Amino acid sequence: MIVALFTGITNMTAVTVTSPGGAIKLNVEVDSSGTPVYSLDYKGTPLITDSHLGIKTDETAFTDGFRIEGVDTVTVDRTWQPVWGEYATVRDHFKELAVRLTADNPDRNLTLRFRVFDDGLGFRYELPVQNGPNYLTVKDELTEFNYAGDHKLYCIPGDYDTDEYLWSETTFSDLPSALKSYGRHTEAQRVDGVTIQTPMLMKTADGVYVNMHEAALDGYPAMLLDVDPASYSMKSHLVPDRLGVSAYLQMPFNTPWRTLIISDDARDILASQLVLNLNEPCAIEDTSWIKPMKFMGVWWEMFTGNEKTWAYSDDYLAKPGVTDYTKLKPNGRHPANTENVKKYIDFAAKHGIDGVLIEGWNEGWEDWASYRKNRQFLFDRPYPDFDLPAIRDYAKEKGVRLIMHHETAANAADYELQLDRAFRFMKDNNYDAVKTGYVGAIIPRSEHHTSQWMVDHVRHVIERAAEYEIMVDSHEAPRPTGLCRTFPNWVAQESARGGEFESFGGNPPSHTCILPFTRLKGGPMDYTPGLFETKLSYYGEGKDSQAGTTLARQLALYLTMPSPMQMACDLPENYERFPDAFQFIKDVPVDWKDSRYLEAEPNRYITVARLDKNSDDWYVGAITDENARTAVIDLSFLPDGGKYEATIYEDAPDAHWKDNPQSYRIRTVQVKPGQKIRQPLAPGGGAAIRITKKN
Question: Contact at 8 Å (CB) between 675 and 620?
Fold first, then answer.
């Protein structure tokens, strides 16, 4: 339903619009210098005070000298059905305000489009064809977010190349000291000054939560936030190219949406679909080939202390000119070989795991700086010990799908040159999903991982993959902004500090209590849950690493970190040690009909219930930080008139993420609608529950 409230109103200097339910009030005006200004109230209290808007380019400035030429406002209330996700149906309900601005000296036109939802705000700049220059070189975006207090912030440092940080819980005033505690990542560029990344979360002194991010990032660089701790203000900071240019635009052009998810209930932040709603509908006509899946693979054994390697040979330095790998001596530590991969296929087939990922299967892994030295990744050239036709046929016989890995060592330009050949090779060999990677500094132009060039590159990869009916799980790519709605073959991304860091020293238990409030608001993450052996070594170097989790918590992550492409990350032998716990990973779905967030506090705890899209079974996941707590699970979501059985996978009484992580127990109880289960969670622990209706 779309209802026009008023259209074409002129001679206005200010306009106000409220959310459908009235809790959010937006005011937009032009000040005495002709600069557009907005402010925002939540439930009658100022949240964002007067904040300027504008875009600065080399050719002209869309910053001041404007007057309001006209205003259009409509109310929209509609629903849509995701191909996959947390909900089978999503409501898209907002009031839209389009403020058309014009200036005479020089002649410029700009539209500011705002959409006010009950759970937040999205706005963007729309640059129509101009009477003046229509090719613009963007130097800066002047979007401000001026807050009304010294609020609590949950954030990571500004960086042009990586999101793989632990999160700080700080305030505006304490932010500078918090950022100083971070080191610098290799081949990544931290931003000097007080700059943070989106998505980030804020909690005001009045208990209002605000997630800040962007939606529909396309043809434009990612946005960071420059913070002034003294005035509690933030300003957009666009990731530049190596020349310092943020973006090159051709009119007409719409920027990404700047998004604010707002509520005084933390559960609403987790449930919000605002970012997805601001993206365009699905661009793929036939989506029947897009199939959510669980997978395992040749991956974790290269991380965990057994001296395995992605590379086939150690002989490459002695023979830099040799490109025929049959003339290189194998190192004997290469797990992406025919025999080992068949073992994974057998295990997946036996336990109903949909797919197997294989890393290190192709030529080029011997030199991580391969494009600068001796080797190039080739995406249609298997190593000599990887009999691809035999593996392809074996997987097909067993009913297991294969997932290819395309690591590019950040040579995105070369990947584009190989892209069609690589995708044809995949389809010829029954691969319908690929994990892409961009580890290192972007080559050849010293671009950044979140610059306009890389945003365009990743969009190109996704579109070409869709044409070949290939699903994509991208790593080291620009952080997601809901484009998975438009291209649902983009089933997962990394773009944060994931589960692999459990072998690099560990992630604290609080880490997965903040990611759903921040990183996951842009789209699902390939976090790689399912870790059962939590005492690890780093790349075989003997460094002890303790994962920040209990075993039961790892099961709960399949609910609290939803993704349509979920990995069972551990080694098959570790699942064989705990077959009763592994049963939950085998059972838990990855696609949902409905979701109910029952409890939540950022960086502390999350409890969620989800309804399987393909059955009447409900699943519940609960996690906590380093502190033990008792989750209160209200079963009011269960339909009346039935009897239910709950299988509970929980921390044992003596469980502890550090001291006793593998202590768990499984029990079955009878439950009924409206009942409240008081579920103990160990420090760093969790619980996972399957609820089935009894006949």
Answer: no
Judge if 449 and 467 occupy the same domain: yes
Whether 324 and 360 share a structural domain: yes
The Cα–Cα gap between 597 and 365 comes to 43
- Residue that is last in its domain, among 277, 303, 318: 277
H or E segment to which residue 676 belongs? strand 676-681
- Domain carrying residue 461: 282-476
Tokens of 549: 């989790």
- Do β-strands 431-437 and 471-474 pair in parallel, antiparallel, or remain unpaired? parallel
For the CA atoms of 217, 221, 222, 228, the dihedral, rounded to the nearest 10 degrees, stands at -130
DSSP 578-632: SHHHHHHHHH--SSEEEEEEEEEETTTEEEEEEEETTSS-EEEEEEE-SS-EEEE
Percent of the chain residues past pLDDT 70, beyond the cut: 96
pLDDT of the residue at 642: 86
Given this model, what pLDDT does residue 367 score? Answer: 77
Are residues 440 and 506 both part of a single domain?
A: no
Among 335-349, 453-467, 533-547, 649-663, the minimum mean pLDDT is found in 533-547
Q: State if pTM tops 0.85.
A: yes
Residues with a known catalytic role: 500
Our separate counts of H helices and E strands in the chain read: 11, 40
| Three-class SS state of 243 | coil
C-alpha distances in angstroms, 451 versus 162, 212, 261, 418? 12, 19, 24, 22
| Cα distance between residue 440 and residue 445, in whole Å | 13
Locate 511 and state its tokens. 């880490």
